[in-house]
Write a structure and sequence with these properties.
With about 120 residues, the chain is mainly beta. The chain is built from one helix and nine strands; from the N terminus they run βαββββββββ. Strand 5 and strand 6 form a beta hairpin. The longest helix has 12 residues.
Length: about 120
């Protein structure tokens, strides 16, 4: 799988386009730090991502019988953003690196095999 680093001066435009392309895909978070790996239990449906003043904001929705409940996650001190691609060149993960070198990964449902 290929990986692409997004230059900071391209973040706003890239993330807006990324949000449009991936809206409605199931996605979950994984966090990698010196303390180990944490994986989110609940998947939600991706809506959008943006960055302002070093803070990434990811909005997803939990779909329930009575409607959607938004989840807004904020990732502070974002220093780098990269994308990893699936075998069909669709975006598979978005990785946020903070100033400590810890990584938060937004992992999308695969368009190839449905895994996430």
């Amino acid at each position: 799988m290929d990986k692409k680093i997004i230059a900071p001066d391209e973040w706003n435009e890239y993330l807006a386009d990324f949000s449009t392309r991936n809206r409605g895909r199931r996605a979950r978070f994984e966090a990698f730090s010196r303390d180990g790996v944490r994986e989110e239990d609940e998947e939600a449906v991706f809506d959008r991502v943006s960055v302002s003043n070093g803070m990434a904001t990811v909005t997803r929705n939990v779909i329930k019988a009575d409607g959607e409940t938004p989840i807004i996650d904020e990732i502070p001190d974002v220093h780098g953003i990269s994308i990893q691609y699936d075998s069909d060149n669709s975006e598979n993960t978005m990785e946020f690196m903070d100033t400590n070198g810890d990584m938060t990964v937004l992992h999308f449902e695969s368009l190839v095999d449905g895994d996430s």
